[in-house]
Specification:
With 318 residues, this protein is an alpha/beta fold. It contains ten helices and 13 strands.
């Protein structure tokens, strides 16, 4: 303790700030012992670039080179700061079309010795971003109600939207078995009070996804980003936490930082949220020792449980 498995830097992500080294130095300063570097994989179509990337004159080819440069820099930092912090080098997925998954397979094959873990995330539904801004989210939601004139589609259309999100998530899980499940309920970013139990089809798919991820030992991240975006909880919300727990899932922590200023941000509030839910166990990714006898993920890392009462770690008193 403490640890985070999900982070970004302005050096390799245009909506973040600072350099990757600045992120690492911030993690060291705050007392993190394990910190995951997980920049986004490239997107391969001009139509899928974000406004700040277009404004910067980037192309899909630029994003591919940027990701390769990230791997080089991440491993340089991993070696340079090995005596001060354990850095894990991973990636965060994108699933917009099937082509993204095929190209992710190619990346994993080409860099198999350099990518230690995957943060499995979905940010799009019907090829539209659902977490960039409210307008784009509403546009994605309206795709499920093309004949409705109102700005608030009927409940059945929300069920279809949520179901499409969870179907995409399931495809990602089945194909790549990510070690970390990224912001599981991102699909309700702009509707934090939404209860999945009120949408039967979507709820069944959510339950299916959690059961599958739990079956191979994935870690479900508590992600502090939701607290920065106005929620009174982190991802996932209370109802999903209860479901993950009921289905035998294991939890970990992530700050989802977007620059050095975001390292460890909202961790005290996240701790209070977990304590209020009665979360007694936390896990993190680590390299198995020679004497380790438990299961190992296909990319070589293992899940390690925090010993004792995690909330008593000296990190929380800093």
């Amino acid at each position: 303790m403490p640890f985070s498995h999900h982070s970004h830097s302005g050096q390799f992500c245009k909506h973040a700030k600072g350099t990757l080294e600045e992120v690492v130095l911030a993690a060291i300063k705050q007392g993190f012992r394990v910190y995951g570097l997980s920049e986004h994989v490239p997107r391969y179509s001009l139509d899928h670039l974000y406004p700040e990337e277009i404004e910067a004159g980037l192309s899909p080819d630029c994003l591919m080179k940027q990701f390769a440069d990230f791997l080089d820099e991440a491993h340089r930092l991993k070696s340079a700061y090995a005596s001060q912090i354990t850095l894990l080098v991973g990636l965060e997925t994108e699933y917009i079309t099937e082509d993204d998954l095929d190209k992710l397979s190619n990346i994993l094959s080409e860099h198999s010795n350099r990518i230690e873990y995957i943060v499995g995330s979905v940010h799009h539904v019907h090829e539209l971003p659902i977490d960039f801004n409210r307008a784009m989210f509403d546009d994605a939601l309206r795709r499920f109600a093309p004949t409705i004139k109102t700005d608030t589609p009927r409940a059945s259309h929300m069920d279809q939207f949520l179901s499409a999100y969870f179907d995409a998530q399931y495809t990602l899980l089945k194909r790549f078995r990510p070690e970390i499940i990224g912001h599981l309920d991102l699909c309700r970013l702009y509707n934090p009070g939404l209860l999945f139990s009120e949408y039967p089809d979507a709820y069944n798919k959510l339950e299916r996804n959690i059961s599958y991820a739990a079956s191979y030992g994935a870690l479900f991240e508590f992600n502090a980003a939701a607290l920065r975006k106005g929620w009174d909880t982190c991802y996932p919300g209370r109802d999903v936490v209860e479901l993950v727990h009921a289905l035998g899932g294991r939890f970990t922590l992530s700050d989802d930082s977007h620059g050095p200023q975001g390292v460890g941000e909202k961790y005290p509030e996240m701790r209070d949220y977990l304590r209020g839910l009665g979360v007694s166990e936390l896990w993190f990714l680590s390299h198995p020792t020679d004497s380790y006898v438990g299961p190992v993920f296909e990319r070589g890392l293992a899940a390690t449980r925090i010993g004792g009462e995690w909330w008593d770690d000296c990190f929380w008193k800093r």
